[in-house]
Amino acid sequence: MKCSFLGRFIENKSIRATTKRNTRVTKTRPPCTDVTITPVPSSESPNKMTTRSQVRSSNTNLNCYTETINKRERQRKSQSNQRTSEIVENIINVFKLLGQGLQHLSQFECRQAIELFETISLKHLHTPWILSHLANCYYHLHDYQKSSLIYRELRTKFPYHIDGLEYYSTVLWHLKDDIALATLAHELSETDRKHPASWCASGNCLSLNHEYDKAIQAFKRAIQLAPESDYAYTLLGNEYSLVDELERAMACFRKAIQLNSRSYKAWNGMAMVYLKQEKFQSAEFNFTKATNIFQTNPDLICHLAVAQHKCNRSEGALSLLNDALRIDSKNALCKFHKAGLLLHLERYHEALTELEQLRQIAPKESLVYYLLSK
Question: At which residues are the TPR repeats (predicted)?
């Protein structure tokens, strides 16, 4: 019984499992025709696909844009190159003017040098190099007032510029401006005590105050600091000449000429020593050397005329004095020596005319009245 019941139970269970499996298999999906697919527009596509014409159009636009950028870049570079060439040309022109002016100054053609320096633009003109050389031009022309004004401007704008200021101290010495000269010497010593210009200024200051021994020591110190400075040797030679140490003065002038053969002041100083020694032929030779270097200096021509007069060539001396007065018609030294020479030649009316003109130029000069009384 039990076996038959168990067999019947197993059979019923297998039948239910088979039925259940068949039922699971017979379940079918709905047909695909019932599903409708709506196409997505291309504009809403996430890949943004483009056509060939659109690609060509975008490439054309990109090429045009690149060409425009390149063209602008070429124009910018050409303008930049043009501006650069203009700047370089301006710089070359400035250096050309400076070189020409320096060449005229080295040949002591001072007026031509002044004209060139003054044609330079203000931003270049107001530099220490040009101001110093411009003042030096007026110094060589013996226009000490104008030279002093330019040197003063240089000191105001560039108080630490010292090179070339030994000439400024000599300008103040000729103007007899002892206060300005003492101030300059003090300021230069405070700025750079080891610069030769400081000691040259101190020497000129001491010389103006008639402290000749101390002035000589100052010029010697300048030579120690700058043994190649022909101007320091010239100043020392002038100082020795003032105290009548003529041999030492000659040695200094010869050393200055050895350092710079175109130092007309050294040639002039040596000639003045020969005049003191009454060696008139030697004096004439050295004055001729000086005038050949600086041909438009009326004082040098006047000294040469004096030497020729001492050599008994009075007519030639008078011709030289007339040449000097054509260069500077108001030169007091030339007029004085011309008047004296005319007196020597017994041309009294001409001498009187020169002395009357000289009295208007130098009313406080006692020698003028002495010659008038004769």
Answer: 196-229, 230-263
